[in-house]
Amino acid sequence: MHSEPHAQAESDTLPVGALILLALTGFAAIVTETLPAGLLPQVAEDLSISPALAGQMVTVYAVGSVVAAIPLVSFTQSYARKPLLLAAIVGLLVFDVVTALSHSYVVTLVARFAAGVAAGLGWGILGGYARRLVVDRLKGRALALAMIGTPLALSVGVPLGTFAGGAIGWRTAFLVLAALALCLAGAVAWKMPDSAGQPPERKLSNFAVLQMPGVAMILATAFAWVTAHYILYTYVAPYAEWAGDGDRVSLLLLVFGCAALAGIWIAGAAVDRHLRLHVLASLAVFASATVVLGFLPHSDGVILIGVVLWGLTFGGAATSIQTAASDAAGDGVDIVGAMLTTIWNVSIACGGAIGALIYRSAGIQAFFPAMLVLLGVAFVVAYAASASGFRPGARTER
């Protein structure tokens, strides 16, 4: 499984099929993570536990990803990419089956943790794998296409999974996910080009990558940006009720998801030539969306405008951050990808925790000042990272 001398050469055209397989891996990982959230009453009744305990199925999955991503990706950085991708997909498959068949809460949690470990490996190598498949001028667009699975899962996959779980039962829903993972593994084994890992003599430590100019500032920007997003996204249903749109949560999520897909397309077109501008503009427009959603008089039109701006700016966040981090890390692209996976999951947890604290103590209306503070921090850090991290000019000219 170690690095092979005859791995796939970089392509001067987008390998769309291979990038779609990477996107589907991200899609499968996200749907597997979030599916229980919409089925908590079913799971709780079936396993004879409380809904709060059933909710830990999501938590332990995220913990598995956080704990495993950096050490696993660091250990395997000299391995060929295709076997690692297959291992991650097969891990999702196996532990989805265990989850579907388990009647023990403890076994279910262990299976969910292990599935999170598999997802952490998959997410950690996804960006670097996509970038290795193409020449420099196409790396931004390749990354954008490979990352499209996440917003697609959040906007379409999660609602569909929740609906399917309600119609056919949560256990059958997990078996369907396992079947999809099996099909994906077969397609990867058959069609996915391989890519060499890092030569052993060029392996880098986690600390060495973190010390590279710009990396820490990019990670700090990502943390503040994603935490601000998840303060509101985690509590979008209570927000909709507060704004007088409580019966249209599904519509708001669909609008957000569609706008996020458009945001990924914009990011893919912009990051190779205007990465710094795209990041700063996204943060500024996200702040504007926060003002629209939190401080303007509420109406259907105002809320939809705010949600569209929010989705447009956040949709491309993963592409922009991953591109900047990969540029800054150089040979440490896979390690920085694992760091981003960890930061992303920690930010999700922090956003949910901060949102819960604010919600209980001050109400929904207090979300928006907190979000503006975090977005301000992200903007200042990104703006300051002009020498390294978020540099001006076209990436292909560097």
Short description:
The protein is an all-alpha fold and 398 residues long. The protein has 17 helices and no strands. Helix 8 runs antiparallel to helix 9 (170-191).
Description:
The protein is an all-alpha fold and 398 residues long. The chain has 2 domains: 16-197, Growth Hormone, Chain: A, CATH 1.20.1250; 206-387, MFS general substrate transporter like domains (Growth Hormone, Chain: A), CATH 1.20.1250. It has 17 helices and no strands. The protein has helices at 16-34, 40-47, 51-54, 56-75, 81-101, 105-132, 139-146, 149-168, 170-191, 206-210, 215-233, 236-242, 249-295, 300-315, 317-329, 333-361, 367-384. Helix 8 (149-168) packs across helix 13 (249-295) and helix 13 packs across helix 17 (367-384). The two termini are 33 Å apart.
Which key terms come to mind for this protein?
globular; 2 domains; 398 residues; single chain; mainly alpha
Task: Furnish the topology, listing elements before pairings.
Layout: H1 16-34, H2 40-47, H3 51-54, H4 56-75, H5 81-101, H6 105-132, H7 139-146, H8 149-168, H9 170-191, H10 206-210, H11 215-233, H12 236-242, H13 249-295, H14 300-315, H15 317-329, H16 333-361, H17 367-384
